[in-house]
Amino acid sequence: MGDVKRRRIDELAARAGQVPEGEGGVSLTRSAFRRLRRDPVAIIGAVIVVTFLVVALFAPWLAPRDPLAQTLLSQIRPGLIPGSQEGFPLGVDNLGRDLLSRLIYGSRQSLMIGVVSTVLGVAAGMALGIIAGAFGGWVDTVVMRFVDILLSIPGLLMAISISVLLGQNQYALMIAIAVTQVPIFARLLRGSMLVQRGSDYALAARALGIRKRRIVFGHVLPNSLSPVIVQATLSLATAIIEAAALSFLGLGDPDLARPEWGAMLANAQAFLSVRPELAVYPALCIIVVALGFTLLGESLREALDPKFRR
Amino acid sequence: MLRFIVRRLLQLIPILLGLSVLLFAWLRALPGGPAQAALGERATPEAIARYNELFGLDEPLIVQYLRFLGRAIRLDFGTSARTGRAVTTEFLERMPGTIELTLFAMIFAIGVGIPLGYLAARRHGSWLDSTSVIGSLLGVAIPVFFLAYLLRLGFAVELGWLPGSGRQDVRMDATRITNFYVLDGLLTREWDAAWDAVLHLILPAIALGTIPLAIIVRITRASVLDVVNEDYVRTANAKGLATSTVRRRHIIKNALLPVSTTIGLQTGLLLSGAVLTESVFAFGGVGSALYDALFARDFAILQGFILMLAIVYVLVNLLVDISYGLLDPRVRVR
């Protein structure tokens, strides 16, 4: 089952591993980086991502107000939430909190959820992939059967089940998103390592009598990483969108002291006809960041994939 | 070919067993355990103890698992704590709605996506090409439930062109045969009922179809670009075949192979969880039932629905595998 899905992941793994013809002298990383710098798509993606990272890092200095302070309460009535005005560039939310400041602080939480869950997913997936790819044989079979079972559960359903199990807090949210990514990375890295293990340089290393552990960790693994890096960049986008979805389903972070785009967006649905901006701005943030990571990931793939080197 | 299918079917067994183990473990690990899950959150300790004894939850885990498996095979997942109805009945009643919605969403995604992807590739570098590339990137980046809300607000609430919730007007006194509302309307010749059901499907189908649409455009475009540069296309052109023949027999036929896989995988995904879209439109399919169960912490529904949806997903993927084997003879060998 899921054979097509598996094959697709394996294809990605196999393609990114090939050494390009006529470029033997330049290292893969360096030639990829050179291509990236000349790719406008990559630059747009990088600018978006870096901008949001800077905003997240310097949120306390950039935000004009306290994201939790309730103001303008006298102006808030059922069916009326004040919009943009002096001192509140984007207006306030239904509880009178400055929207712009919440968006700026929200970038911290949203990016952190994206990064932490992706790092967790990549780490666990890579551990499984390395075990399977390095040992081969029955270990490989057992690990990959387990991964296939995980792959056979639709991502959102899996995230929901895990959130329900772990309760409602930000760590549960991150773990739930991470788990959905584990099987993809496990399969990807294993496939990529299998290709590398069969390559000439691995054979040469074996012929030289180098120990297996050193071949795996010193040669095969570093050369197998490029599809993982590409997928991880793309996964950052998915993770942030998925966090918003889980917030919408009531499985997000219940701590109101931490503004987060997904939760803001989910909350704002109730006031959509009163002030659509409350939903539109956090949604825009999510879309733009996701787009940034996607652009970066896609151009990384093109830079690292020999098929595109023309 | 038959051997290929049989082998694929056999491979299902370990997957389904693994799924059942995971779900059994999940239910055991829930706060309060299966008793609370079945009786609801406000069950008294005595009731829980009685339940545990009644269903043998004090026995060794392996015995419990086998019993759970026995019931799962008969598709017996108990009754919903909220509605008091059998989980399986509830599921079978709601699945037709989700199937209809998936079908409409995929018709939208395929109908728009393949022509658009093809045109984008043939006019590589044109404004149409760049628009569809940007559009397909955006389509994947928009949170589905937000898009659903926007569509509902715009076309149902503000403009009032289309219905924004439910599967059919409640005032419609339609006859039910299969629970596929459109099909029922056609079968009973209640044309207005069928048409009303179609209208109710349009907005949710567009919202749900956006992600598959974006992916189909991208894959079609990339795949056509690949195929156009193949040697056999050059040969076909060189030997003087009519452009339309080359296009139909050589380019489109080969380019659609990866697209068909994508369509299959996406269909499986939609069938197994239109939770977000369905809940925005209060659609009444499997997805909105899951959403309600989530808020009510109705574990019997959650467990049963998740397992049955995973099975649906697995089966659809199996169909995709088999059809891929039919379409591409190279796959069968492995």
Automatic annotation (TrEMBL), chain B:
Limits of the ABC transmembrane type-1 domain: 95-324
Membrane topology term: Multi-pass membrane protein
Alphabetized Pfam families for the sequence: BPD_transp_1, BPD_transp_1_N
Any one GO biological process: transmembrane transport
UniProt subcellular location: Cell membrane
Keyword Aminoacyl-tRNA synthetase assigned: no
Main location: membrane
Signal peptide: none
Gene Ontology annotations for the cellular component aspect, listed alphabetically: plasma membrane
Bilayer-spanning residue ranges: 101-121, 133-151, 197-217, 255-281, 301-327
InterPro entries linked: BPD_transp_1_N, MetI-like, MetI-like_sf
Keywords: Cell membrane, Membrane, Transmembrane, Transmembrane helix, Transport
Family: Belongs to the binding-protein-dependent transport system permease family.
Protein name stated in the entry: ABC transporter permease
